[in-house]
Amino acid sequence: MDDPLAIRDFAQALDGAEFDVISTAGHVLAVPPGRFRDRPVPTYAGPFHDPFVLFGYLAGLTQRLHFRTGILILPALPTALVAKQAAELQLLSAGRFELGVGISWNTLEYQALNQDFAARGKKLEEQIAVLRLLWSEPFVTYEGRWHKLDGVGLNRLPSNPIPIWMGGGIGDAILRRTARLADGWFPIGDPTEAMPKLKQYVREAGREPDAFGFTGRVTAGPGGPDAWIETARKLQALGATHLMLGASPDVQGVDAVLRRLLDARRALGGALGA
């Protein structure tokens, strides 16, 4: 959506229907459709809103919605800048911001932002450590492979910890990184086989799986409420703490998408007591 009033109305409708979180992609740049023939066009063609600008706009127009990037390509961005923007958004939204991060597969975006695609996983790990330092200490001294901070900081700390979610595939390296570093996970693809592995890796990292967030996706498609509820219950059995609702591609137009989401929210709320 490009119309700011339509964006406002959409978010306020979700807010009033007791949705908990609204999410948006964190890509900086778009690529023409067809450039990546093995990837779904919406994952790279855009155009994409800047999530910090969008969520800053919506924070003043809503009451209960949390805002989560899904996902911010963290290794392509300056860590201190992300720390600053996230802390400001958390403050001005009264604690309603959640940072969703990932490494992405888009080599062209990394190239355009002059960042090292090959090192993105290791860099992400260091970035998360630096983010948490900047959010917990007014001034930070730290030296790593990608960061050197010499007694600098935000000097205004978030009032509450900012949750860090990781999104991405279900490969072993991603699962182990997520288990060690993240507060929660939202997978791309079917999580059925990966979820038991992730729980085990969380335990091996000395953490409690029951306190770890897991967002499963329910596509509100043409199968109707019975199909949506069946998917939701399977995800709940796997350990889902959150359900992300999206309309299927056959639903066209903002009003139709909103109606479908509201229908799905009512159906799942009635069936799951949420």
Low-confidence stretches: none
Structural class: alpha/beta
Strand order of the largest sheet: 1-2-3-6-7-8-9
Q: Could you name the CATH class of the domain at 4-168?
A: Alpha Beta
What's the end-to-end separation, in Å?
Answer: 29 Å
Strand content: 15-25%
Question: Which value, in Å, is the CA radius of gyration?
Answer: 19 Å
Number-wise, the strands total 9
**Mean pLDDT rating:** 95
Secondary-structure arrangement, i.e. CATH architecture of the domain at 4-168: Alpha-Beta Barrel
Note the main sheet: 7 strands, parallel
Assembly state: single chain
What is the fold named in CATH at topology level of the domain at 4-168?
TIM Barrel
Number of helices: 9
Secondary-structure element order, N to C: HEHEHEHHEEEHEHEHEH
Range of helix content: 40-55%
The fourth-level CATH homologous superfamily of the domain at 4-168 is Luciferase-like domain
| Overall body shape | globular
Summarize the structure.
With 274 residues, this protein is α/β, with parallel strands linked by helices. It has helices spanning 4-16, 51-59, 79-92, 107-112, 120-136, 172-181, 194-204, 224-238, 254-272; strands at 21-26, 66-73, 97-102, 140-143, 148-152, 164-168, 184-187, 213-220, 242-247.
Can you walk me through this structure?
It is a single chain. With 274 residues, this protein is an alpha/beta fold. The chain has a domain at 4-168: TIM Barrel (Alpha-Beta Barrel), CATH 3.20.20.30. Helix content is 42%, strand content 19%. It is built from nine helices and nine strands. A seven-stranded parallel β-sheet has the order 1-2-3-6-7-8-9. A two-stranded antiparallel ribbon has the order 4-5. Helix 8 links the parallel strand 8 and strand 9. Helix 2 packs parallel to helix 3. The radius of gyration is 19 Å and the shape is globular.
